[in-house]
Each structure stands twice: as structure tokens, then as C-alpha cells.
Amino acid sequence: MSEQNTSAVGAESAQPWDETRIRASLARIEQLQNQLDALRFVIPTITASAVNQGTSRTTYFKQFSVTAIGGSEQLEKFKRDWRDKSTQEIFDKAKTRREEDSNLSMAVGVPKYGWIEQDEGGSALSSTEVEDMKKTVEMWKEKHPEVKVNLEDEDSKAIVQYTAGPYRLHFTVARVVEDNRKQVYQVSCSGAKPVFAAMERCIASRPRTDRLYDTLDMLSAYSNLPTAQCATCKRLLDRQATIPAARRRKQSASPPAENGTDVEWDALHESCLSR
Ligand SMILES: [Zn+2]
């Protein structure tokens, strides 16, 4: 997604700053904000993996190294995207405009979020609208009757359960509305197996943390957990002998369909996510 945005902005760098380019630039900035949000979880997950007792030394080392390397790669990607020419052009443009006209009152009415979806051709929730989880869950369940979804805590939390081969999957999806009215869905994955902890980390670093329908789609994509090969390295096991713990939307030429219908998912190792 960020690659697509990069090329969209980059390809137009000789173009005037028309509405299309400004919208694409806002999507780019939102993408960087999402990357920054995901980076907040890096230190807590490294700490959690370091204090995780009761595992063998091999598993302990594996979990710790994958988490630490993954976090460092996330940071490097953010730095690359931040320094990228297309990003710097956006900052330069903003600076020039501010010098031309320092009255920023119009900016108050510009939503912070929803530009990525618009840039991809989808519709976005308004930044002040809190999603009706019950409505979205019911709509989603019609397409996925095989997955059990229960709502709890006055419909602010969804419990998603199903079986994938030998794995009993149990996800908790909790809606968190932040001070700036941005809603995000935090997902935890219950169970003692190391792959569950890896899945939780991979789900936390997904794009579109504010979309319940997409999140549920991603969770249901683990139905092939025991057998899915990694889309990047084409293997079942990575060097740490772990199965692919991440699911990401398959990259396609056409924009994603409304409400994530007919979305195809790639399985990826945690270590292959940022390659
Ligand atoms: Zn892989």
C-alpha cells in the first residue's frame, strides 16, 4: 500500500499540486502516521518476549530475536519512507505554502484519517463516527457463517473463534476510541503456542487498524494456518522453524472491493513481512 502511494506521489512529482496529488499526499502522511503508531508497540513486545518465562532456551531466543529484528526492520522502513523524495516534497510544499499564507484556520476542517481508503478508491468513515460493531459483525457473519463471533461489553468487544487443523483460534477484538476520536481495533490472540504471540504482533502491525470488517477478514484468513506457505519465501517454515504468522491483503492491480468482499490474503512469516 505504501509502495503504491509512494509511486503515485513520486510519479506525479513533476505535476502541479492539484486535488489528486494533495489527496495522495494526505494518504502518504496518514500511512506514515500508521507506521509510527505501530512502532509504539515495538519496545513493549520486545520487553514481553524478554520476560516470557517457562519456554525452552531455544524458543526463548527465537521469540526474542524475531521480535527484536522485526522491530528494527519496522523502524528502518519508517526511516526510509520518511526520507523518501516523495515525502520530502510534501514537507517542502507545506513549508512553502505556510510561508505564502500563514493562516492555517482552514486546516482545522481537514480530517486526519480516511485518506488512505479514499486514495485506494474505497469509502471512509468520517473521523468523528464511531462504528456500530454489532451492525458490522452481523454483516460480516452473513459471508462467514463458519466463524463464531460473539459480542461482549456492550458491543465494544468481539470474540472470534474457530478451528484451523490442530489449532484452536481465539481472538479478542476490542475497540479503543482514542482522544482524537480515532477508533482502533486491538486484537489479542489467546493460547500458549509461540505462533499465537507472533500472530498477535503481526496483527498489531497491520494497516487499517480502524476497520473492523477488514480486521475480521484478516482473522478469518488464518483458516489455512497449518498449511499456508509464505508468499515471500515460498516456504512453510522460516529459519526459526515458525509457520507464517502474518496475513496481508494480496496486492492486486484493482482497488479493494467495498467492505473487503472477495479479498484474498497472503500468508507471510513474521521475518518476511518487511522484506
Ligand atoms: Zn517467508
Describe it for me?
With 275 residues, the protein is of the alpha+beta class. The chain has two domains: 1-124; 127-275, no CATH class. The chain is built from nine helices and six strands, in the order αααααααββββααββ. The protein has helices at residues 2-11, 19-39, 42-50, 57-83, 85-100, 115-119, 133-143, 194-204, 212-220; strands at residues 148-152, 157-164, 167-177, 183-189, 246-249, 265-268. It has a four-stranded antiparallel sheet. A two-stranded antiparallel sheet has the order 5-6. Helix 2 (19-39) packs antiparallel against helix 4 (57-83) and helix 3 packs antiparallel against helix 4 (57-83). The radius of gyration is 20 Å and the shape is globular. Residues 1-12 and 122-127 have low confidence and may be disordered. Residues 230, 232-233, 235, 238, 268-269, 272 line the site of zinc ion. It is found in: Nucleus. It holds the Pfam family Med27. Residues 244-264 are annotated as: Disordered. Keywords: Nucleus, Transcription, Transcription regulation. Belongs to the Mediator complex subunit 27 family.
